[in-house]
Write a structure and sequence with these properties.
Layout (H helix, E strand, L loop, with lengths): L1 H12 L1 E4 L10 E4 L13 E9 L5 E8 L7 E3 L3 E5 L7 E11 L9 E4 L2 E2 L31 E7 L5 E4 L8 E2 L2 E9 L7 E8 L6 E4 L4 E5 L11 E4 L18 E2 L2 E7 L8 E3 L7 E2 L6 E6 L5 H16 L9 E5 L8 H9 L4 E6 L5 H13 L3 E5 L13 H5 L4 E7 L4 E2 L4 E4 L9 E2 L4 E2 L2 E5 L4 E8 L4 E8 L4 E4 L13 H12 L5
Parallel strand pairs: 1-8, 12-21, 22-23, 22-24, 24-25, 25-34
Antiparallel strand pairs: 2-3, 3-6, 4-5, 4-7, 7-10, 8-9, 11-13, 13-16, 14-15, 14-19, 16-17, 18-21, 19-20, 26-31, 27-30, 28-29, 28-32, 32-33, 33-34
Helix pairs in contact: 3-4
Length: 515
């Protein structure tokens, strides 16, 4: 008998079911706030609901709420409001919201089960200090008293809202580009971005759209197939070469003006308006690459000197191989051509070519050089550089690692003692039988310095000889995929004017470029 009484006490201490309310305690009443009036119009699926409670003989502890058809259990809260994201389907719908207030007149002990009004509310809520998911003695709990037996309720009609798209502010198109470009956009929906199931993308014709996953926010478009008159573009999700979408984008117009259209579609089939680039009043011309060679102009200035260097290299490449390269190479101006998401778009752009000549002043784009050089060579490309290097400073910071990221060198050599190497310096082949022509500088060269190539993977090609500076100034990789000279070649065409002969030696003989 004693054992039976003890078990009964233990059981009822962990179980609270109030069938008859004592006359000394009355259940609280619950009310919903309705804005802006007493009726509920159609709402977006993300909405804010507010409520309050009144206990005629005590104080309200908190509230239990539930969405019929969504929640399997009642949820306890101390708050008087909350924002909910309700699921939407293929059509507008409605959901019933119920909320009951709870008073503070509990039994003073933790109850593992609370059953009132024929409803199992689960265990009393508690603060799980040790994060083990189980109530332990000493942890704070909310002692549930009487629960309103007549929950306040309102049926909320839910209307599906249309997604909204805007282009990312970094997506600014140049007026002219090769058939490679990166676009990014922002997508939102009052029903929640997770309801966006498709991003429709089209080029020039919105009836020929391709549907991408709803979470897509950035793509790079590219093509290298110019044999088919109906050119299609690959779609790189998030700009990744490892995430190429299964379907290609039609509609590209080569050597013509183009426009991109993007649209969002949600789970109900509601579609946003198409947004497009370029904006009205501007154009985006996509040019078909000519030939296999790209000249990268990394001159970080504009003006007469830059125009003269451009013209020099254009004339030099047009004269090699008996003039057979005339009109068969492209020039890309890094300083005056701004690409959106350059770290993605530029590497994809140079993949359109097999050979690159990259010339610069004394502050080359080391970030891009480190980004693209090795990958370009590993994919079969061959590249030649002509540039000088300022000393590292607060405005042009680098270390030896920044240079070794794209050049096969051990260290930097000697820098010219005066501010510039004076004209008339001889640039002589390191190996007299190598076939590289003799060069001579025609004007002063600032920031001139020598180099120490890594003799395991590179070999010396040129030495500078002058009263100011002596040592290695040019080298190439053992595998003949990279050439470097630490002078601007457009000021090395003195003497027998052999720069065109050097370019022919590098690109035709060493690299194997065939016009």
């Amino acid at each position: 008998m004693v054992l039976f009484l003890l078990l009964s006490i233990i059981f009822f201490s962990c179980y609270e079911e109030l069938v008859d309310n004592p006359s000394s305690n009355k259940a609280p009443n619950t009310f919903l706030f309705l804005y802006p009036d007493s009726t509920i119009s159609q709402q977006p699926s993300r909405l804010r609901v507010s409520w309050w409670g009144d206990d005629p003989d005590g104080t309200v502890l908190g509230f239990y709420f539930k969405w019929e058809g969504i929640d399997s259990k009642w949820t306890f809260t101390l708050n008087n409001d909350s924002t909910f994201s309700l699921p939407i389907g293929s059509a507008d719908t409605s959901y019933l919201f119920l909320v009951s207030s709870v008073d503070k007149e509990g039994n003073g002990i933790y109850d593992a089960v609370v059953i009132q009004n024929g409803i199992n509310y689960g265990s009393e809520p508690f603060v799980d200090v040790n994060k083990n998911g189980v109530y332990n003695p000493g942890e704070k709990f909310f002692d549930i008293g009487l629960i309103d037996p007549t929950p306040a309720s309102t049926d909320f009609p839910i209307v599906n809202t249309t997604p909204v798209l805007t282009f990312n502010e970094l997506t600014v198109l140049p007026d002219t580009s090769f058939p490679v470009m990166t676009f990014a956009w922002n997508a939102d929906d009052l029903d929640g971005v997770e309801t966006i199931t498709k991003i429709n993308i089209a080029l020039n014709d919105t009836t020929l759209f391709v549907s991408l996953p709803g979470g897509t926010r950035l793509v790079t478009l590219r093509t290298k197939d110019f044999s088919n008159p109906a050119v299609e573009m690959e779609i790189l999700l998030n700009g990744s070469d490892l995430s190429i979408f299964s379907e290609k984008l039609p509609g590209l117009k080569l050597d013509d003006f183009n426009k991109l259209f993007i649209q969002a579609e949600d789970i109900s089939g509601a579609r946003s308006d198409f947004i497009s680039l370029p904006d009205s009043g501007t154009n985006w011309y996509i040019k078909k690459p000519i030939g296999k060679l790209l000249i990268v102009d990394d001159f970080q200035t504009s003006g007469v000197s830059n125009n003269e260097s451009k013209q020099f290299y254009n004339n030099a490449f047009s004269s090699i191989a008996g003039g057979s390269l005339t009109g068969k190479f492209e020039t890309y101006d890094l300083f005056n051509s701004s690409l959106p998401f350059e770290n993605v778009t530029f590497p994809e752009t140079i993949k359109l070519f097999d050979f690159i000549f990259w010339y610069s002043t004394s502050q080359p784009r080391l970030d891009l050089l480190n980004l693209v050089t090795n990958e370009f060579r590993e994919s079969g490309g061959k590249i030649a550089f002509s540039m000088t290097l300022l000393d590292s400073s607060s405005t042009f910071q680098y270390d030896i690692g920044s240079l070794q990221g794209f050049l096969p060198i051990d260290s930097l050599g000697t820098r010219v003692e005066l501010s510039a190497l004076l004209a008339g310096a001889d640039v002589l082949p390191s190996n007299q039988g190598s076939g590289y022509p003799i060069l001579k500088t025609t004007s002063s060269i600032g920031s001139a310095r020598t180099f120490h190539p890594n003799n395991i993977i590179a070999e010396k090609v040129y030495e500078v000889s002058s009263t100011q500076l002596n040592g290695n100034i040019g080298f190439k990789s053992i595998d003949n995929t990279l050439f470097f000279i630490g002078f601007p070649l457009h000021v090395c065409n003195g003497g027998n004017a052999n720069v065109h002969a050097l370019l022919e030696k590098i690109f035709i003989d060493d690299f194997g470029l065939t016009p």
